[in-house]
User: Fold this.
Amino acid sequence: MAVNRVAVDLDVTFDVGDLAPTWDLQLTAWLADATEAGLPEPNAMVLATVDVEQSPSTRTVLCKSLDARGVVFYTNYTSTKSHDLQANQRASVTFPWYGLHRQAHLRGLVEQVGREEAQRYWATRPRGSQLGAWASPQSAVLSDRRVLEDSWEAISRRFADTADVPLPPHWGGWLLRPEQVEFWQGRRDRLHDRLCYVRTDDRRWVVRRLAP
Assistant:
C-alpha cells in the first residue's frame, strides 16, 4: 500500500498569533492543508463515546460538515455510537493528520441534526450507499454475511422503480458543538505546540497554550 509522505519542517513555530480568529476557521484551514497534502481521508475523525455503563468506545467517522456550530457526521440512529450518544451527550473527536505531524481535538456536547439538513446531505450520497443505509441494521449481530447481502438485495428490489431513495427514519446526523478545540503541532524533542480554544462560562472563546 502506498503511503503519502509529506516533508514537514518540525522547526516552524506555531503560536497564538498564528491562529485564525475562530476555532472553526482554524480547523477549516488545517483540513484544507491535509487535503492539499494528499493525505488519505483528511476528513476522517476518531469519535469517542461512553455508554450507560461508562464503558468508552472509539471508531472512525467522516466529518461531513464544519461551521461555527461544530462538526457533523452521519450514521444509523440504531447503531452503538448513536445509543451511546443518546445516553450520554458528551463526546470527543480527533482528526489524526499523521503525515503533517498534526492533530485536532474537539470535545463537547452532541445533538441530532434537523431532518431537513440530513435530507440535503442524503441527496448527495451515491445510490449504493443510500441502499446500504436501508439494508444494514448497524451494530446488530448477524449469523453470516449472506444475511446482509440478502437484505441489500431486498432493498434494491423495493426501490428499483424509485428514482430518489428516501431518507430512512432511522438514519441522520449528529452535531458535536465543541467546548474545547485543541490544535496540536509536532515539534522536535517532543516539545510540541498545543494551542486550545476554550469556551468560558460567559460563552466567550479564549486561547490557552498547553504543555506537551
